[in-house]
Amino acid sequence: MYTNPTPALGAGAATGGTLAMTGAASPLWIFLAAFAMIAVATAILRIVPRRRRQD
Description:
Elements: H1 6-19, H2 27-47
């Protein structure tokens, strides 16, 4: 069980083959990430209290 490297090599090969396909970023995912970041920023701006000017 601990001396046979075949299961570990097989798992590494399977993982390596699937991770290689995730390197290409399509424009759709970039757009969705940008939209999510803008949504988070606007949500934080709504939560943070505003400073009022004292005249």
